[in-house]
Amino acid sequence: MKKIFNYLNPIERLGNNEYSFIFPLVANVALCILSEVYSYGIVHDPMAVGTYIIFINVAFIIYFSFRDGISGGIISTIITVLYYFYIIYNRPYDKTQIATGIDTALSIGVIYILLAIIIGWLKQTIDKLIGREANEKLWLQLILQQLAVGVIITDNKGRVLQTNNQLENILGIKLPSGYILGKDKHLIRRSSTNIPFFAKQSSIYQALKAHKSIIRKEFAMRRNDGKDIFVQVDSSVIRNKNNRIVAAASIISDITQEKELERQKDDFLSMASHELKTPITSLKMFIDLQTQQLKENDATKAVYYNERIRDQANRLKELTNDLLDVSRIKTNKLGLKTEDFDIAEVIHDIVESIQGTTKAHKIIIKNTKKQIVKADRYRIYQVLVNLLSNAIKYSPRGKKIFVQINKDKNSIVVSVQDFGIGISKSQQERIFDRLYQVSEPRERTYPGLGLGLYISKEIVERHKGNLWVESQKGKGSTFFFSLPL
């Protein structure tokens, strides 16, 4: 019944630009047939069809003009005028009455046509205007839903009129249409305290009250799923041509990742300052001690202090090189000087050099077969030094470290295995991230900026290889990197 009502109701059809030809034709023909049935079959008086049919026909013409535009009105008019001529020639009229009836039918027909054209034109104009507005609204909706930021639009009372999908993705809830900011139930909670975030504290509410824009306000919020997020909100009032506030809009951006990066940068600067301060302090101390020993002519201690100065200077150099490499990577200036060389030979050289730095570990090389690769010798040397240094650092109780070379169809794979503290599953995917620091206190006791693995992975990937890890907490780790043959 609802579908039938909507089909018949011309108001429901405004703006759809659908005009029927068959329905006006069938309805008007049916009206003529019913009139004849009424005249001949019910009242048995052919002259009974008189004034009433004129009013009914006018009503039909107006109805179909408003429902189906000019075409509907013209169809109704044509059938009506033809029926009038049918009545004139099939009723017992004399010649004078027939002539008068023809003139009258033609005059009424002209009036009906004008009526159909005027009403039909108004109907079609309204449809175009409604359609244009609907298209503009649809485009606005599409743009709104495609935005990468959350959007809230309210009326001048703070009642939510419209939101987009991204807002729900950010906040984890859907603000219902009609929700009144500052009045209805609080849906969002503050992070850390977990107390309700009162809507009166929102930027859009403050913008409406202050009658001005509120920009770059940051809030820490807790979603219903327990996730803490940071959002930045920009709100502004919307005025009409009379400068009256009619609405307000807010743009909500998820800045959680940016906040995390800021925190990591702060941590990095703190660590970098600490790590750089240590060797500089040591250098100054050993220089002062050496100066004193030289004054006392104690050459033995002077040699010892010189060695410590060299160690601290090397450490300072390594830290500086790491910082420079990170800068080169971010600016895409980490150039590679490739050449053909035997990676097995490089591994032997590195192991021999690093073995001299530790007495607690035995570095064992497996599979020393010659393997030629085309790569940057210095950068691959840097990767191997980093992996071996980490293996020594993070296996204080492990006695052996294995270095192995394997070959498959298209590449060689170098692995460094230790039997140290291992890496948890949750951290294995992130240890290669820039500025990532492990959260467990035990790992934090080992010094360093945490840039080595990040730099190593970038170097290997720029050689079109890969760097990955296999590890089990408490049982050690094996780092692998591949290089194309």
Radius of gyration: 43 Å
Low confidence ranges: none
CATH superfamily of the largest domain: Histidine kinase-like ATPase, C-terminal domain
In percent terms, what proportion of residues is strand?
15-25%
User: How many structural domains in the coordinates?
Assistant: 4
Helix-and-strand structural type: alpha+beta
Arithmetic mean pLDDT: 81
Extended strand count: 13
Number of helices: 13
**Shape by Cα distribution:** elongated
- The CATH class designation of the largest domain is Alpha Beta
The neighbouring-strand order within the major sheet is: 2-1-6-5-4-3
* Straight-line N-to-C gap: 76 Å
Kindly state the percentage of residues in helix. Answer: 40-55%
Brief overview:
With 485 residues, the protein is an alpha+beta fold. It contains 13 helices and 13 strands.
Describe this structure in words.
By secondary structure, this protein is of the alpha+beta class. It folds into four domains: 143 residues, no CATH class; 106 residues, Beta-Lactamase (2-Layer Sandwich); 71 residues, Helix Hairpins; 147 residues, Heat Shock Protein 90. The chain is built from 13 helices and 13 strands. The strands form three sheets. A six-stranded antiparallel sheet has the order 2-1-6-5-4-3, with helices on both faces. The two termini are 76 Å apart. The mean pLDDT is 81.
